[in-house]
Structure formats: C-alpha cells, structure tokens
Specification:
This is Protein phosphatase 2C-like protein. Helix 5 crosses helix 7 and helix 6 packs across helix 7. With about 270 residues, the chain is of the alpha+beta class. The longest helix has 16 residues. The chain has one domain: PPM-type phosphatase domain (Phosphatase 2c, domain 1), CATH 3.60.40. A hairpin with a 3-residue loop joins strand 2 and strand 3. About 30% of the residues lie in helices and about 20% in strands. The model has no long low-confidence stretch (mean pLDDT about 95).
Length: about 270
C-alpha cells in the first residue's frame, strides 16, 4: 500500500483584533498538520515572553520532533513542552498563569492528538465528526455564566472575566480539571489520541475562533467542511467574521470577545 500523504493543503488564519498579534499558530506539510491555539492571558503570567511567543516556539518544536515518524505523538508533545520550558528558565514557569496553548496534531497515516479546545473535523464512513477536548469548557461554569450575562465592552464584563480566568487556571493541569500544553510535560499524558480511518478526507484542524461557525449555530460540521473545501478556509473565517460583526456586543451570541483568533488548515489525503 502506498504511503499516505496530505494533498491540496490550504491554510487560513486571521487575528481576532488588529491591535495584537494572533496567538494561533499553524504548520502543514504532506505528512503532518499542526494547529495551536494560545490561551488568552487575563492575569499575570510570570513570563516576559507572552502567549504569542509560546505558541510559536511550541509549534516549531512540535514540527521538529514529529519529523521522526516513529515517535508517538504524546511523546512528541511531552518533549516539545520540555524543550520550550528550557528556552526560558528565567521566567516563573510555576506561575498559575504561565503561557499555554491548545494543540492538535494529525499525521497523514491518521494518528492524531488533541489537547485543549482545538478541533479535528472530517467526514468518515458514518458521516461528519469533530474531535475536540471538552474539559476546559467544563470548568468554572458559574463564572462563565456570570460573564455571559454581560455585554462585550462593558465594565461588568471586564470585571467578571477576571474571576472566571482565575477559576479556570485553578483547574488547569490538575486531576479532575483540564489539561493543556504549558510548562509541565506531564500534560501530554492526558491528551486525546487515536487513529482516524484512512478514508477520512477532507480533514480540517480549527482553533475555536474558526469553530465558531458551528458553535454559534451558523452551520453544522458537514456544511463547514463543504464550505472550506469548495470556497476555501478564508471564506469560512469570513463567514464567522460577518456573523460576529452583526452582533458586536454578544447580545445574540454571548462570548468573551467580539472576534477571536481564527485558524483553519484543510487537507485531503491520498
């Protein structure tokens, strides 16, 4: 059987705000798709580098280590986290707010890893599916509900976001909470891993800013994949941006910010 590879790869990304660089990061080749979603920092982090730097450094390390096709993806992530931690030892890597990122990796042979709220979507024999780690959204629920009561841009919203983030951070990388790539390599042991059927094509990796196309109710996963394949990932993100612009304060679709960083990688397998 010939070796599988990704073909017709398309990547689109857009920052959520013109005032700050995107904290998403992506890379795509014929053998590996990688998407990271840096977690928004709303408190002190103990790090001078920031989330944008962390996501870029971790993504680069993942691509480098995953070049060995025999390495298990959880081991790839574990080693990448350790490598980046070693790159900034002067920062307080024990700080509860230390920079972090959600991660999705997909090899052309179907092996995948998901940690945090980055989605792998595709169409298989049983129809469309989406693989995402739901654990982060299951934390700080009372605080999230309080945030959703207020409109974007109001002092009340800004004030409610701080206790929400603190409650979320208290549940980060601890038993019974959620796991995400930060400074502790152990998080890799809690990633969701598996193997997609070789016939699943196309496949898409999306940060949650792009997955809003589904989570806001604009379309289902089948329509999302069709739009991304037929019209391109850029148009998918544009559809999300049009919806967000129609509800800038979050009255119709409660959310933490009008627009989030959005990234889509779409590929077919041959």
């Amino acid at each position: 059987m010939p070796e599988l590879s990704f073909e017709d790869i398309r990547l689109a990304t857009a920052a959520g705000s013109p005032d700050k660089p995107s904290e998403d990061w992506a890379n795509a080749s014929s053998s590996l798709l990688v998407v990271l979603d840096g977690a928004t920092a709303r408190t002190e982090t103990g790090c001078v580098h920031g989330v944008h730097w962390y996501a870029a450094r971790l993504g680069t390390a993942l691509v480098d280590l995953a070049a060995d096709p025999g390495m298990d993806l959880a081991d790839v992530l574990r080693r990448a986290i350790a490598r980046v931690a070693a790159e900034h030892p002067a920062c307080d890597l024990t700080h509860p707010g230390t920079p972090s990122a959600g991660v999705a990796l997909l090899r052309a042979d179907g092996r995948y890893l998901v940690l945090g709220d980055v989605t792998i979507a595709g169409i298989g024999a049983d129809g469309p599916f989406a693989l995402v780690d739901p654990r982060v959204e299951q934390t700080a629920r009372p605080e999230r509900e309080e945030v959703d009561r207020h409109l974007i841009g109001t002092p009340e919203k800004a004030a409610a976001l701080i206790p929400m983030k603190r409650a979320e951070l208290a549940a980060r990388n601890v038993p019974g909470g959620y796991w995400i790539a930060a400074a502790d390599p152990e998080a890799a042991e809690h990633a969701l891993t598996g193997h997609l059927d070789v016939n699943v094509s196309p496949v898409a990796l999306l940060t949650d800013g792009a997955a809003r196309a589904v989570t806001l109710g604009l379309m289902n996963w089948s329509r999302l994949l069709y739009m991304a394949a037929a019209e391109g990932p850029d148009e998918l993100i544009a559809a999300v941006r049009r919806a967000e612009a129609s509800d800038p304060l979050g009255a119709k679709w409660p959310r933490n910010k009008t627009s989030d960083d959005a990234t889509v990688v779409l590929a077919h397998r041959r």
